[in-house]
Fold Protein FMC1 homolog.
Amino acid sequence: MASITSKPALVTLRKILSEIRKQSTTKALSENQMVQYILQQYRKHQTTDQQYCKAIDEMHFKAKSYFAYLHNCRRYKEINTEFKGKGERSVEDTARMVGFKLPHDPK
């Protein structure tokens, strides 16, 4: 994840926090355990003068994958609630929906 202040790592962190904010029920992100864990991992794997993280690319890839997972889960829920069907329709309901009349219906 490189340094927290490096541009790609910071952009990815902001995207992750934005997705968590959109899905969270609480307003304060500082109280969210998921956010605390993510920030802890970012701090743990950052590069400093005294420490060199060999897995910078791997951790950045994991962060981007996690962002994609959060984003796509939220989109799935939105699409599912918008287009979810009400189950199987009866013949009468289907005929009414397309504008047909059944033979036993009055004209």
Summary: The chain has a mean pLDDT of 80.
